[in-house]
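Predict the holo structure. Ligand: uridine-5'-diphosphate-xylopyranose.
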Amino acid sequence: MAELGHEVLGVETDPDKRDQLVAGKVPFFEPDLQELLTTHVESGRLRFTDDYAEAAAFGDVHFICVGTPQVAEGMGADLSQVYSAVEPLAPHLTRPTLVVGKSTVPVGTAPALAARLAELAPVGADAELAWNPEFLREGFAVEDTLRPDRLVFGVTSEAAEQTLREVFATALAADTPVVVTDFATAELVKVSANAFLATKISFINAVAEVCEVTGADIVDLADSLGHDDRIGRKFLNAGVGFGGGCLPKDIRAFVHRAGELGAEGAMSLLSQVDDINQGRREHAVQVATSMLDGSLAGARIAVWGAAFKPQTDDVRDSPALWIAGQLHLRGAQVSVYDPKATQTARRRFPTLRYAADAVSCAQDADLLLHLTAWPEFAEVDPAVLRDVVRRPLLLDGGNSLDFDAWRGAGWTVRGLGRR
Ligand code: UDX
């Protein structure tokens, strides 16, 4: 928002993160974000506080950008952070204000939140709510935010729409498509987008199972499907399945909400998508075990990748870290290397061994697992690595390495759903 020309005050209640932000330091890895933060902290256009009264006095528009994780006991979304942001802000809203929800929420959340906002705000219903879902991808967050592929405004008044049009004037001037709609649709667009992407991945992974038993090749198949522009090649990469802080918990929250609403079709379809996805991780463990002749006890396994995908240090619901952890729990000695996610992985899974680089990770390994497709892994020379490991066995969980090159260098290579 500062880059787009607005004056911005960020409310951060975690004192460590706030201190880092005030000092101009991004508290996680996200490409290009550090440069933007430095620029706008220095320009003074971006500041941080923990004070809701200050935020209320400052802002004409308040974005709610907090997380909605899966509840501890069940599949639904935990909305406590959303309410914890709105409830302390609202009592300070003494002039007309637009509060804009960005968080991914179950359909039906916005009307309840709007009522709570109007009830708590001294200005009453002039503290208005809008819903403006966020579609950014980790690793491309800056690009997706500055140049979104679409904007969705869930509003209940023309004034709210007008305010959002002013906030997003730069994107609108660049002809970004905008859909102006009601709360329920705006809430559902986000969960449906993630549910569709998840379904596409589980679809190709289900077909990969068939490829594996028939000797067909999932990469040739996905390439062939992708030439049909009704299908498209994106999100047809078979492998260890999807992870991260969004897709897994969002489809579960959708299943839960669909169940509450009696929408049986959505519930059963997305339950299957989740089941297929979870099955991929266990399948990868089984394939790894079979490559080691059925015995993990004492085997030395090198794992390349811990983040849930490349270009992030996020290990939330990461297939790579789950697989590494399971192999360790089942008796293997596991060494993990990730270019950016070692710290976050170590916090989540301290008992694994973490290597300093890709080659030392593979030292004396009986099996190498390539689980997060960072570009640097594709650059390692398989002939050099052949002399580092104990046995030249590779399982490529993302099917992205050059199988011919590795086989040519003397490796036995397996993918998931590949010849
Ligand atoms: C996702 C949505 O893409 C984004 O629009 C939304 O705002 C937040 O959730 P993100 O979680 O950053 O973004 O990751 P994404 O790039 O969608 O990948 C999700 C998972 O799917 C990763 O684990 C990735 O490795 C996996 N994936 C992706 C596949 O397994 N196969 C594919 O073909 C594509």
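The CA atoms of residues 128 and 157 lie 9 Å apart. The chain has a mean pLDDT of 97.
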